[in-house]
C-alpha cells in the first residue's frame, strides 16, 4: 500500500459514498486498490494511511472516533 497521509474515510476518495458530505456513522466499501479485494466496509469515522482527499473536500485532519458515554 502506498505510504500516504492519515485521514478519516468520510473525506477520502476511496470511500464509496454518493453522499457529498458523508457522516461519521455512514458505512461504505473501501475502494482503495490494495484493499478492494477484501470487500472491506468502513465507517466515515474510520481512517488509514492510504487517505486521498475526495474531490472538492480538501485535506482534513484525522480525528479519532468519539468514544460512547458509559
How would you sum up this structure, described in words?
This protein is mostly beta strands and 70 residues long. It has one helix at residues 33-36, and strands at residues 5-8, 27-29, 41-43, 47-51. The protein has a two-stranded antiparallel sheet. The mean pLDDT is 83.
Number of helices: 1
DSSP E strands, number? 4
Shape: globular
Radius of gyration: 12 Å
Fraction of residues in helix: under 10%
Terminal-residue CA separation: 37 Å
Question: Strand-residue fraction?
Answer: 15-25%
Strand order of the largest sheet: 1-4
| Mean of pLDDT | 83
The largest β sheet comes out as: 2 strands, antiparallel
Unreliable stretches, pLDDT < 50, 5 or more residues? none
Structural class given helices, strands, pairing? mainly beta
Order of helices and strands: EEHEE
Summarize the structure.
The chain has 70 residues and is mainly beta. It has one helix at residues 33-36; strands at residues 5-8, 27-29, 41-43, 47-51. It has one helix and four strands.
Essential attributes:
1 helix; 6% helix; two-stranded antiparallel ribbon; 70 residues; single chain; mainly beta
